[in-house]
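Q: Sequence in, structure out?
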Amino acid sequence: QVHLTESGGGLVQAGGSLRLSCAASGQTVGNYAMGWFRQAPGKEREFVAAVTASGDNTDYEDFVKGRFTVSRDNAKNTVYLQMNSLKPEDTAVYYCAADRNSGSYLTSWEHEYDFWGQGTQVTVSS
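A: Exactly. Output:
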């Protein structure tokens, strides 16, 4: 069983930056693709970014391209989401997730992900 814990959220002004971390415990996620999702109040959870097990390939939703960067350190069993040029519409709870059935295939479909963290709140003020 994989346990995921997100951290790094907080309150930031528009234009600022945050770096989210997702630490895995219980077992290594080095062979799993990892994803980041977010859910704003009153909205459905949506895909943000994903990274393959090796870290060589990434995928981003259009609204974060050029602003967010997903990466991972398999030695630390941790995945990161660097968020720059934050906007008020980025305000949401951010979740990381692990896809145990794929290391090299990236999906934005949340039902493909097997393990989820509890989320970390990101609030961007205008």
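The longest strand covers residues 18-25.
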